[in-house]
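Quick start: what a row looks like.
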Amino acid sequence: MSETPHAKPSPGDRTPSRPSRAELAAQTRRDNRNRRVTHILSQRPEDAGAIAMNPTTFVQAMLPHKERYLLGADGERVTIHGVGGKPQPLLATTYAATNGSFTLTIRAGTKRGPNHVHPEVSRGIPFGGLARLLLCYIITEAQIKKRRTIDLGTTLTDFCERVDITPSGGEHGRIAYVIDQLQRLSTAVVDYRWDTFEGPHAHQRGESILFVDSYHFWHCAATPTSEPADGGTITLSDRFWHEIVVGSCFPIDFRKAQLFRARPTAYDLYLWLTYRLSGLERTGRPEVVVNYDQLHAQLGSHYKTDEHGKLTASAKKNFGYKVRDAIRAIAAVWPELHVEFPRGRVVVRSTGPDVQTRQAKRAK
């Protein structure tokens, strides 16, 4: 007696494969982002109490997007023998960004080295969206409280909630990242320099400013639920307080800064657009036009340039794509924004800044 062979299921009858964990995680991130965008659009920053203050100096020239390393004469990273003899790359000791006549230089603080041969090593330059967000939060809190000492909360979890970061432990967790960036900001020195040329004469002026006078952080090995003996604090330096916090800031929507924390290019462009549109409104000009080389000089991204500091052809193409993608993301939460992209340029039409008032309100 012969058996009837099983019929093969048609393509339409096949059960769709289950999404992978990576696909589910990506979908969750998209859903969360869409919910945050909807929430931002539903309420003005003034009504949401989300007005924060950002220093103008860090729009003229910005912090780097990525980690900066100490490079040798051959252009390669300098490494030393770290703990257990493992190679350890040294972090950069200085970082400089030049925009026209203005140069911003950041000198990193130090930390304990891995051995007696290297007792002190660079702590590293503050970088990425988190460093920008922390700096903005600290300045805003100082303006709201009208004092140089800022309370960071009794626990790491408390502080992370204030800046909308989900705390996670471990060597590569977010807690370690938050503490690291706070330490970098707190131990860095900022140098400002202006170089101007009038015929054969060159004029140079500048100043150096400490971010903070003193700081106290939670134990670096703390867990999200651990309770320190007392809370974390930062006391801004007197010069930073008077010249930056009091004298040179502009308002932004802190919810958007939080949204772009993981996208430094979008974060930088949001700051730049807000600052430039405020200038257009103040002067009555209809637009601002910059080319990609000019814009690249202001952002913290570092694409390949030639000996004259101009973007190479391939770098300009990649940078242009990144800029257009970032501005589309910004426009999703700033519908009034009007930006055009004629070949090799960015044209920003005057529509007013994102935040009108200059008074800081507690970010939620």
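That is the whole record. The longest helix spans residues 21-41. The chain has a mean pLDDT of 88.
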